[in-house]
TrEMBL record:
Keyword check for Oxidoreductase: yes
InterPro entries membership: Aldolase_TIM, Alpha-hydoxy_acid_DH_FMN, FMN-dep_DH, FMN_HAD
Top-rank lineage group of the source organism: Bacteria
Species per Swiss-Prot/TrEMBL record: Streptomyces amritsarensis
SUPFAM superfamilies: FMN-linked oxidoreductases (SSF51395)
A Pfam family that the UniProt record links to this protein: FMN_dh
Record's protein name: Alpha-hydroxy-acid oxidizing enzyme
Cofactor: FMN
């Protein structure tokens, strides 16, 4: 049966549920479980989708819009859509080219990519594959701060346009799929390329260290459960790049992020992979927007699947969203072509959703496009 598939692109459907199922048939079972998995009972993962599905758009008719303008400006940069690729670790579990294929697809569609600290390709390799296309770097601040500083320097030197520091995974969530299979890409050495290529990290290893020693050292220092807001202030002092804090759900944490030097926040539940039973990102979004005011960039992720989802997030105060798992399913199905396919679907769906809502541009999208039970 596998022979029958060889050399032929698996069917790239435009139906995301079918696409995920197809990826589940093509990807290695433990890799698919890692990507699709959530924490605990999966309640927060489901709540992420339920929050979008519970909201309804109320479209307006005959506004004469030939083509809706989906572009947006973020940190002074014009983006064709209010969408960036979310940082997803260890993408070689889906395809041998990993993040290099992803960034080429991102470049072909104009969607910026946020590269994970735990990418399976080095940030320099991905910069080269990007060929000047905008990218941001997601930082897990290691407990060895000198390694963290080195990662930031490398990101700056390679032309990454912002640092997104993730604060919701200083402890790894309780993830049954990973625990039961005993599978972790990182323990197999996938997703630590930015460390093994780092001179400061390597200096902390014996000269004759083997791959196992590198993985063990990575496991010791790669995240830091003792992080506090003071560390964010330290990071702020390290770089002039825009600094965003990813993983915010409480409005007071959004305020604290700004007080400690952040330029923006990403409201996120990490796709339901961290605290099971937490509030959904979409539920938190309006309060976070209110807390930071109208001028601070607020992004959100966790559950974005359709063009209408993007509009709903924008209506509740997001400047842009991060698109997650679906593009890795595309990568698993057909490498960079699969990622490009998934992105083109989202872009087309978004442009149609905006036009069908009766909005000429994203500036026209606000709470008024959402049903509030009172249509007088
Ligand atoms: C397989 C996988 C790996 C991830 N790795 C990272 C990571 O390295 N850094 C990070 O900040 N978030 C990471 N995330 C979280 C995503 O950036 C994003 O918040 C989440 O995928 C959004 O949920 P959705 O994909 O269901 O829309 C990861 C998510 C998945 C599914
Ligand atoms: C410590 C986090 C590992 C990568 C990640 O963010 C994820 O799997 O969700």
């Amino acid at each position: 049966m596998m022979e029958g598939l060889a050399g032929r692109a698996p069917r790239l459907t435009t139906d995301l549920t079918a696409l995920e199922a197809a990826a589940g048939r093509v990807m290695a079972p433990e890799a698919f479980a890692y990507v699709s998995g959530t924490a605990g009972s999966g309640a927060t993962g489901r709540a992420g989708r339920a929050a979008f599905e519970a909201l309804r758009l109320v479209p307006r008719m005959l506004r004469g819009t030939r083509r809706a303008d989906t572009s947006v400006t973020l940190f002074g940069q014009r983006l064709p859509v209010p969408v960036l690729l979310a940082p997803l670790a260890a993408q070689q579990v889906a395809h041998p080219e990993g993040e290099s294929a992803t960034v080429r697809a991102a470049a072909a569609t104009g969607v910026p990519m946020v590269l994970s600290t735990f990418a399976s390709r080095t940030l320099e390799e991905v910069a080269e594959a990007a060929g000047g296309h905008p990218r941001w770097f997601q930082l897990y601040l290691p407990s060895d701060r000198a390694v963290g500083a080195s990662l930031v320097r490398r990101a700056e030197a390679s032309g990454y346009g912002a640092i997104v520091v993730t604060v919701d995974a200083t402890h790894l969530g309780f993830r049954p799929a990973e625990l039961d299979s005993g599978y972790s890409p990182f323990l197999r050495g996938t997703g630590i390329a930015n460390f093994t290529s780092d001179p400061v990290f390597r200096a902390g290893l014996p000269a004759d260290a083997d791959a196992t020693q590198a993985v063990l050292r990575w496991a010791q220092i790669s995240t830091d459960p003792t992080l506090t807001w003071e560390d964010l202030a330290w990071l702020r002092g390290l770089t002039r790049l825009p600094l965003l804090v990813k993983g915010i759900l409480h409005p007071d944490d959004a305020r604290l992020a700004l007080e400690h030097g952040a330029d923006g926040v990403v409201v996120s539940t990490h796709g339901g992979r961290q605290l099971d039973g937490s509030v959904s990102a979409l539920e938190s979004l309006p309060a976070v927007r209110a807390a930071v005011g109208s001028d601070v960039p607020v992004l959100m992720d966790s559950g974005i699947r359709t063009g209408s989802d993007v509009l709903k997030a924008v209506a509740l105060g997001a400047d842009a969203v991060l698109y997650g798992r679906p593009y890795v399913y595309g990568l698993g199905l057909d490498g960079g072509r699969g990622v490009e396919h998934v992105l083109r679907c989202l872009l087309t769906d978004l442009a149609l959703a905006l036009a069908l809502t009766g909005c000429a541009s994203l500036a026209d999208v606000g709470p008024h496009v959402l049903a509030n039970g009172d249509l007088r």
